[in-house]
Amino acid sequence: MNIPTINKANEMFNDAVRRNPGAWENHSLLVADCASTISKQCKNLDADAAYIFGLLHDIGRREGITTMRHIYDGYLYLKGQRYDDAARICLTHSFPLKSVHAYSGENDCTKDETSFINDYLQNIEYSDYDKLIQLCDALAYPTGVSLIEKRLIDVTMRHGFNEYTLPKWEAFFNLKNEFDSKCNCNIYRLFDIHF
Ligand SMILES: [Fe+2]
Question: Half-sphere exposure of residue 154, counting CA atoms within 13 Å on the CB side?
Answer without folding.
Answer: 11
